[in-house]
Amino acid sequence: MTLAARPRPTPTLVDAPAGRTGDATGGAVRLAQAPTVTALTVPAPGGRAGARRGGRRRASAGPEQLRRLVPRALVVAVLAGGTTAFVAEDKAVTLDVDGESRTLHTFADDVGELLAEQGIDAGAAAVSPPPGTRLGDGDVITVGGPRPVTLTLDGVRRRVWTSEPTVGAALRRLGVPADGAYVSVSRAAPIGRTGVTLDVRTERTVTVMADGREHTVRTNAATVREAVARAGVVLHGEDTTSVAPDSFPREGQTVSVLRIATTRVVREELLPYAVERTGDGDLPAGTEVVEREGRDGSRRVMYAVRTVNGVRQKPRVLATEVVREPVSRVVKAGTGPRGAGPAPARRP
Predict the structure, then answer these.
(1) Where is average pLDDT lowest: 27-31, 109-113, 121-125, 200-204?
(2) 112 with 127: CB under 8 angstroms?
(3) How many domains are there within the chain?
(4) Which of 53, 145, 162, 308 has the fewest C-beta atoms lying within 10 Å of its C-beta?
(5) Which range of residues forms the domain containing residue 197?
(6) Of 129, 144, 159, which marks where a domain is finished?
(7) Rounded distance, CA 113 to CA 119, Å?
(8) Contact at 8 Å (CB) between 126 and 118?
(9) What is the pLDDT of residue 101?
(10) More confident residue, 230 or 143
(11) Which stretches of 96-231 are DSSP H helices?
């Protein structure tokens, strides 16, 4: 005998969409419509009378049977839906506390909840990203105090403090331009408790004037010499630049290349003789007697003759050698009274 049950919706439990912890829907289970039982077939025992009696018993037991089926359906729905939510909400994150990293699995919605789960006071330490940031699978959370960074930026050295976990994050926080910049340490390198020392050179525009041509380059070179080379200009021999080659190139700087050539020249030069004068009281004042004639000497001089961009510079003495010594001229000058007598004959 078949009893027709009136179709009516029966509530069941399924997972509600995941919400934030503390929300009314977070982790809740909502009611949905379960499949309805449209007919229930009950065997009729013991003939027609038994069937009538059994029919009356089965008819009265129909709602009870439904009451037993509904909880079972609810349990199945809750288990199936709960497993889906469990898998969907689990996140693997990396927590770095004072340089010590570990991987955690968590259902926390944001950084603050994760730290609370781990017993970490977010207000007592530097946290990156901030506690209110939503968590995603694969996130890295760093907890610790500020760390020292010794930063030499474009030749200027300074000491700063950062709570950022990596070199790249610290440079972004400090506002250091990253495009084309040279960084002495990998941007992905972590910043430990002892800090880090960085040499950063940003990209600059430098103009090099050489051989009548202008070369403009963007470079993160450490020296003017290196910037000139990156401009495709080669320095030969004594060539140099208008500013110190080892100085730091500045933004917008113009550097001139000086082409230098040096040659050596040897010349014979005269060494003039000196005049030695002595007083003689036997001679009247105003008279002189040459005791010995003078004779010039000579010397050999080596000069460095330099040209800068083709313009001759003042020669520079490299070495001298005396070829012949000069002979002094000796003269006696009278100091006696005038008219004292004739002047003595001049000695040959």
Answers:
(1) 27-31
(2) no
(3) 5
(4) 145
(5) 147-201
(6) 144
(7) 10
(8) no
(9) 84
(10) 230
(11) 111-117, 167-174, 224-230
For residue 283, the surrounding DSSP H or E stretch is strand 275-284
Q: What is the pLDDT of residues 144-165, one digit of tens each?
A: 778 899 999 998 999 998 888 8
Q: Indicate the length of the chain as a whole number.
A: 348
**Averaged over 189-211, what is the pLDDT?**
93
* Residue type for position 249: P
The H-assigned helical ranges of the chain are 47-89, 111-117, 167-174, 224-230
Question: Would residue 347 count as lying in a domain?
Answer: no
CA proximity to 102, closest of 120, 84, 81: 120
302 token code pair: 């080596």
Helix count and strand count (H, E) for the chain: 4, 23
Residue 27 in any domain: the answer is: yes
Q: Which amino acid is at 284?
A: P
pLDDT tens figures, 71-95 = 555 554 555 454 444 455 789 999 9
CATH number at residue 276: 2.20.230.10
Residue 343 lies in a domain: no
Residue linked to tokens 């003939």 = 47
Return the pLDDT at 168.
92
